Amino acid sequence: MATRTEKAQAIEVLVEEIKASNVLYLADTSSMDAESTSNLRRACNKAGIRMKVVKNTLLRKAMERVEGRDYTGLMPSLVGQTSILFAEKGNAPAKLIKDFRKKDQTKPALKSAWIDEAVFVGDDQLVMLSNLKGKEELIGDIIALLQSPIKNVVSGLQGSGAHKIAGLVKALEARAN
């Protein structure tokens, strides 16, 4: 059994890890055997996701100590065995869990997720979370939408209409003189 000092240190480490990430997934890996859990850890490492099995009490205390963030929506899911997944991209852990389930029928179940202040609860959220677009993808979509009208104008000017417009400009110029 860990001493009070060891527990306090574990909580402080969790507080720092939670502060450093805007994406937290809580998963139930209790139905997985040691080999499956090890395979999941390897898959997480490969995908740049940090996975950690934590005690619910310590995680609850750590979440309560993080200032400026509200994790109360995650608290009801802190029952049973809990693995926490830290990631940079909001959809990365969901995609990983979804892909992992294809290979290994012993599935990790999604308890809840916290992505940039938004809380998602329940394993039924997995498909929706895996389809979330990341910040880079959204910026790319916005740029494409903004470029579309400009491309239409430029292509219109480059087509047969360009001669007509040039003719109109010359005619207007001649009238002005």
Describe the structure.
- This protein is an alpha+beta fold and 177 residues long.
- The protein has 2 domains: 4-132, 2-Layer Sandwich (Alpha-Beta Plaits); 136-176.
- The chain is built from 7 helices and 5 strands; from the N terminus they run αβαβαβαββααα.
- A 5-stranded antiparallel β-sheet has the order 2-3-1-4-5.
- Helix 1 packs across helix 3 (56-65).
- It is elongated, with a radius of gyration of 26 Å.
- The relative contact order is 0.14.
- The mean pLDDT is 86.
Return residue spans where pLDDT drops below 50 for at least 5 consecutive residues.
Answer: none
Written as H for each helix and E for each strand, in order along the chain, the element string is HEHEHEHEEHHH
Named at the architecture level, the CATH assignment of the largest domain is 2-Layer Sandwich
Helix content: 40-55%
User: What would the average pLDDT be, to the nearest integer?
Assistant: 86
CATH class assignment of the largest domain = Alpha Beta
CATH superfamily of the largest domain: Ribosomal protein L10, N-terminal RNA-binding domain
Q: What structural class results from the helix and strand content?
A: alpha+beta
Provide the gyration radius in Å. Answer: 26 Å
What's the main sheet like? 5 strands, antiparallel
Beginning-to-end CA distance, first to last residue: 95 Å
Number of helices: 7
The proportion of residues in beta strands is 15-25%
For the largest sheet, list the strands in their spatial order.
Answer: 2-3-1-4-5
